[in-house]
Amino acid sequence: MLRYISSRLGMLILTLFVLTVFVFILMHLAPGDPAALLLQGLGAVPDANQIAIMQHKWGLDRSLVVQYMSWILELVQGNLGYSFISNAPVTEEIFSRLGPTLLLMISSFLVTFVLSVPLGVMSALHEKSLFDRITYTVTVLGLSIPMYWLAIIFMFCFGVFWPLFPIIGSGSVRHYVLPVATISIVESMYFIRMIRSFTLEYKQASYIEAATARGLKGWIFYPSYLFRAMLIPVITIVGTSFPSFFGAAIIIENVFSFPGIGKYMLDMIYSRDFPVIQGCGLLLAATIFILNFITDLCYYLADPRIQMEKQRWEN
Amino acid sequence: MFRRFSIIMMVSFCIIVVGLTGCTPNSTPVATGKEEAIKRVTVAITQDLKGDKIDATTYNGARAVQTAIYDALVEFGEGGKIEPSLAESWEVAKDGKTYTFHLRKGVLFSDGTAFNSAAVKFSLERTAVNEEMASLEIVRKLEKIETPDEYTVVLTFKEMASQTLLELSQARPFRIMSPNAVVPNGAIGGEFTEPIGTGPWKLDSYKEGSDTVLVANEHYWKESVANYSLVFKVITDPQARVLALQNGEIDMAGGEVGNVPYENIALFENNDKYIIETNASTMSYFIVINQRNEFLADKNIRQAINYGTDTSKMMSGKGAEVLGLFQSTVAFVTPDNQPFYDYNVDKAKQLIEASGYQLNASSKLYEKDGQVIKFRLVIQTEEYPEWKEMAEIFQDQMKDIGVKVDILNQERAAYYDALWTNKQYDLLLYRTYTDAQLPYRFLSSLFYNTVDTPAVAYQDDMLTAELDQIANTISQSEQQAIFDRVFDRIHEEAMTVPIFYTKQTFIHNSKISDFTFGNIEDNPVKWHQLHIEDK
């Protein structure tokens, strides 16, 4: 187990290193000069002299190799650098905004999960019934709805036409209702379809037929036979859904003016605040990598076959 | 096994959710208001205000908030007339090197301390040491600041500084801040702690990315103070601003602070719950011409584009009638010095044909030696969503004169890169600056052309020579004569294509009355003079 964890840790460091190069090059290839953009955004009139001063201040007048090396040197000391725009440490900028975003993502994830599992399982267990057809049609339509559009529709319906919920900012539980509803509805379309197809697949397994033949009732064999077998694909969906929910959070935070990391990241991309973009990119990649690692651990815990395979391999 | 796994997962989720509920950012009280204001006016703003960094001597924070908290020595008045503010009067030496300001007595900062020459010296010196300000004329030419007495300040420059009064009147970075706003107290390079100015408002609280609350400065010297608090709420999405106005989460939106898209203004017309306020602006939208393009190097083609543009069709006539590059509200603009090209398709075609181009009967486009006249028009819609419609109308009008235009809608950073750095455009939709930055500062930044630094827009040595002359005279009549020639030159050479004169538009609910526009677009509304109906 220790050997496994250390090898994964090595992979993480290697992946992050490759990613640093990738993000750095991509950032500098993109058009847009941070100094000119900052001055423009501040309402100053950027001229060549002023831009040169800013570039020197941020070290952008050095060669790309030197810039990269100095960033890496800072990185190995645990320092993500300082934001061009605010002069504050990047780590401080990121972590001060993480709370609302994580809360939004986790709430949306839980609602999505609670919504998708029963609907997906039910429509698979009652295949070709009216309920199944309606669910299928709704999910097909739902998958093609742009999240931004749905958010605006919700804002109009439940914020303006029936003023039930606030539509701007965060601060109370009510502020979370519309953003969470938007993300959950869009995300659950994909979840429901996945869970439905897994259930159908496992429903046809020979041990289910055998259990049915033995006369076991559904309420006995579903939990222990079907659902337990489905744990692996469900873990896969859950474990790999982070990027999708983070992407949704970015869109939703911008529409609902939600002060989180998603909105901040987008603002910094537009402003070409290199240290922040690089820092966010690294942290995102590390998060995805760690989540994948946890997913693998969950496989190990959930599936005895994997444990036995591992023991055989170790012996 | 399965049950144990489920329990572990459930408990983990509960711990994370419970833990995160404490992660939401808290409001940062900056100065404690004595009591909760009964009334508040909530205004939409497009970006975070950086309310904890509104230092008068920097470019931090929103301009509309800086002008609400800090006063300038002089104000920018109608048509560019400089009027007294914290300075009651001033004298300028004939050589334009010495400016003597006589300060207003009895003015207090929001912390109750006295405004005096030491505060002015502190503010101006703090600005001058900031490297971001290096290109401003006051900073470039400043030799020394003297304070002969408590209410007199003398600025001495190394050479003539003709833009001094204009720069002092802008929203930033020359507004006056109390020496108590930094630690150590009064240190030029001290760390900024809180905004302390002489303006009608002071900061009450700031929540990053969300709300900034201002309360009345009870020591305000000029007019009566407000009996309500002013809340700036960050709403980035333009559609969300419209919806928030409709559902009452905000009371007001508009202007550069939090613009309402042109196409949505109709939602609030003929509706007695809302009032639409419009005011002339100083900003124009125009097309920058890249003369590196072989077609555009030809004056006939540039003039043809101008003759072929029907500005009255732009934005369903929402702008004022377009004449020359600058609106009549801009300093030095007179009814006689804004010559313009009227809409004349035949004239446009004649000019193109005079340059040896022939109309291809099948493509309906002009060409010469098999080369079709076509241009890339670069625009961006992040800051100016209405540019898309304008560009499409322009594209259509160019088709009528046999010229092909491809619209390239760029992301904001790529757009500014095209303008300032890589010149990857033939035509580029842009905007003039506003108020005190017009016309001189704007023209210098775009058209000033030297061997080392070619002009950003059209390169013309004669225009550059005229701009040099303006910098070397403080006589208004001499400057007027030079500007007359400059405007004429811009028109004659067809260096730009004027497209649209913007207006300032604010929409507010009918609970608010006594709305008055501010003196400059960076101080868009006299926020402290509103009347709020009791609920």
Indicate the low-confidence ranges of chain B by residue numbers: 1-37
Overall residue-averaged pLDDT value of chain A: 86
Whole-number count of domains of chain B: 3
Total number of helices of chain A: 15
Note the main sheet of chain B: 6 strands, mixed
Q: Can you count the helices of chain B?
A: 13
Q: In total, how many beta strands of chain B?
A: 26
Tell me what the CATH architecture of the largest domain in chain B is. Roll
How much of the residues of chain A is beta strand, in percent?
under 5%
Elements of chain A, N to C (H/E):
HHHHHHHHHHHHHHH
Unreliable residue runs of chain A: none
What's the name of the CATH homologous superfamily of the largest domain in chain A? MetI-like
Number of domains of chain A: 2
Helix content percent band of chain A:
over 70%
Bulk shape of chain A: flat
Cα end-to-end separation of chain B: 61 Å
Biggest interface, chains and residues, is: A-B, 63 and 62 residues
Molecular structure report:
The complex is a heterodimer of chains A (315) and B (535). Helices cover 80% and strands 0% of the residues of chain A. By secondary structure, chain A is mostly helical. In chain A, helix 6 (130-143) packs across helix 8 (173-203), helix 7 crosses helix 8 and helix 7 packs across helix 12 (242-255). Chain A is flat, with a radius of gyration of 24 Å. Chain B has 535 residues and is of the alpha+beta class. Chain B has 3 domains: 71-192, D-Maltodextrin-Binding Protein, domain 2, CATH 3.40.190; 201-273 and 510-532, D-Maltodextrin-Binding Protein, domain 2 (3-Layer(aba) Sandwich); 282-502, Dipeptide-binding Protein, Domain 3 (Dipeptide-binding Protein, domain 3). A 6-stranded mixed β-sheet of chain B has the order 14-22-15-21-19-20, with helices on both faces. Chain B has a 5-stranded mixed β-sheet with strand order 1-11-12-13-2, with no helix packed on it. A 4-stranded antiparallel β-sheet of chain B has the order 5-6-8-7. In chain B, a hairpin with a 2-residue loop joins strand 7 (142-149) and strand 8 (152-157). In chain B, helix 7 packs antiparallel against helix 8 (345-354), helix 11 (440-447) packs antiparallel against helix 12 (461-471) and helix 12 packs antiparallel against helix 13. The N and C termini of chain B lie far apart (61 Å). Residues 1-37 of chain B have low confidence and may be disordered. At the A-B interface, helix 2, helix 3, helix 5, helix 7 and helix 13 of A face helix 1, helix 6, helix 10 and helix 11 of B.
